[in-house]
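Continuing the series of single-chain predictions for the mutant panel. This is the parent chain; the variants come on the following pages.
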Amino acid sequence: MWRLGLLFSIPTAALRAPLFKRAVVVRAAGNPDFLEDNLGDASTAGESKAFKPFLHPLAGVSVSPRGFVAVLASPQTDGAAQRALPVVIHRADVDRIRSPYALAFLQLIQGIDVATAAILPPDALQKHVGKDDAVLKRVRVVAATQKKPTTEKRSDAFEEALPPIAEKLEKTLASSLNVALPAGAAEELLRKYAAEDGSLDREAFAAVVAEAREAAGPVQRDDDVAFQLVLEDGDRVPASPFLALALALRHRCELAAGDVFDGPHAVDATDLDLPVQRLEALVADGARLSAHFATMFDAATRDAALPSSKEP
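Parent structure:
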């Protein structure tokens, strides 16, 4: 088990938000070299090397100020810039991989399906759609038609005093409840529940905690796109970004992204300033990992079959 723990902790270092350049992961004796080194350079703007186009439509993953994101990319078209759209999966992973949902997503990309009951059980598809015999045909990504409502701003005096109160609330939730809020969430919660002086009574604080836990969990919908599970019988069932993409990876079905690359968070792919870990690199690392552990298992099996030198 310690080797699995080592595996799942080291590669995520490459997804930490860079200050200037990400540090090389500390070497661990006995591991294949791709675990010893960083998982690759970020696909960000400002690099001197030529931009390499992304795979379409699931291009890779990254941490970001909005949380852990799956990066969707438009098809490569002659004469048109490739577009990229980060879709938020979980809001806690701002500077590094923190949430079990982000870790499970990385594992699925690398061909590892742990099927954790609390995150993605073996019958996740059947439970979500309410059909024991459900078969997933494809996952559709469409432009979101309903925009998330925002809380109106309060008085000038309230808004002026808001930043330090919001910062204190963020720190309190993070240190006491291990809840990491996305950018702007603390301000929204205070606008909704705080008194005019910025204070929270017992009832208001309980409401803030409840909404903060929900805001810090896997998102139920993205600001730009919505996901639909298309079943073999023709039914279409809405799903959260994590569930839809995770099931697409588990069932190896088509991920069909329509005209979704003009949303507010979509950018030209060359301008995507995030430490993106590309899909092809993660898949290759997963294949090498499988081969490495298969070799270790074979060696252990042979050693166990050898007669012990201590036997009479």
